[in-house]
Amino acid sequence: MLTAIHGNTDAKKNANNRIAIIGTVGVPACYGGFETLVENLLDENDKNKLVTVYCSSKSYSEKPQKHKNAHLHYIPLNANGVQSIPYDIWSLCHAAMKKTDDILLLGVSGAICLPILKLLTKARVITNIDGLEWRRDKWGTLAKKFLKFSEKLAVKYSDVVVADNKGIADYVLEEYGMEAEVIAYGGDHAVITDLNLSDAGYALALCRIEPENNVELILEAFSQTDKALKFIGNWDNSEFGRAMKSKYVQFKNIEIINPIYDIKTLFEIRQKCSLYVHGHSAGGTNPSLVEMMHFNKNIIAFDCNYNRASTENKAQFFFNIVDLVELIQNSASLSNGSSMREIAERRYTWKIVKDQYFSLFK
Fold first, then answer.
1. Same structural domain for residues 124 and 260?
2. Confidence band for 13, pLDDT divided at 50, 70 and 90
3. For the segment 85-132, what is each residue's pLDDT rounded down to a tens digit?
4. Of 25, 186, 222, 356, which sits with the fewest C-beta atoms within 10 Å of its C-beta?
């Protein structure tokens, strides 16, 4: 884990630096993990840093010019999908023309222009390469090749590469021979008031409904037990999600729940569950996992290097249906909740993450 630089040293070092944050839909946060990261990097009480956040005008009906003392610059393209490439390139070129001192690039979509950009600007480029996006099942062959090539350019032409998980940092070192700084995500924003923990008897799962998140494995395992499961996700957004919903909604112990964006409602559901089941198999450190680690609840996670790194090997792990069924049936004997919370408070708070990022700037 990167050692953060605290106190007045950072404040003096970053004062009056022009910092550009590129690669997200924008702020106020309305989309996902990177947007939440940017929201928490900004500080409405900090007037020393000159921060510009690049935003997609397609995603905001109202377009404020400032947010938490950051200037917002709008690009008339979508930040996701195929338009993410020209969106990031446009943002990078604009930041270079504005003589930006530090560029924080979140994701690798626009990294294809970094070789030329580095000839045109003296800006320090810090790139968070995200979760090895090219490995995800949702991309076709050509998209995977492009994303892998973009990742290679990002690593080669960035001044600093950030990985959100030690597993990704290990990959960067092995694949490219470069040391990456490990900076995860904060999760303490999910705990909106003092915890009043109780056990309402149900397990909780929460994720995007995609095959790589082991959705079917989790549902099938619970269908073979009597343990109640509340599973929150975007079930109606894909053929896969609709098929899973149709197949498993018939089981009395499985409650299929559509996405919940209200943080108060999520807080109540989280603090009343018996345990949390995390099925992600790709993507590095997952925000929903580090959020849940703050709730002092037992966690069962899919067995992969990312989840082991995030939980310091102290969660319980499953690799198949048989493993998970056995853990569910013996869940009364689990006792890793306090360890999960200790790790979260030591590693996954936004203050720690913010200090780590700003220590990288000029």
1. no
2. low
3. 999 999 999 999 999 999 999 999 999 999 999 998 999 999 999 877
4. 356
* pLDDT tens string 172-205: 999 999 999 999 999 999 999 999 999 999 999 9
DSSP state of 263: H
Among 183, 218, 237, the domain-final residue is 183
Query: DSSP secondary-structure letter at 332?
Result: G
Find where tokens 């220590």 sit. Answer: 359
Of 132, 150, 183, the residue at which a domain comes to its end is: 183
Q: What is the pTM assigned to this prediction? A: 0.88
Full domain range(s) for residue 195: 188-347
Give yes or no: residues 148 and 262 share one domain.
no
159 shares its domain with 295: no
CATH code of the domain covering residue 136: 3.40.50.2000
Beta partners for residue 18, in sequence order: 50
Cβ pair 236, 256 in contact under 8 A? no
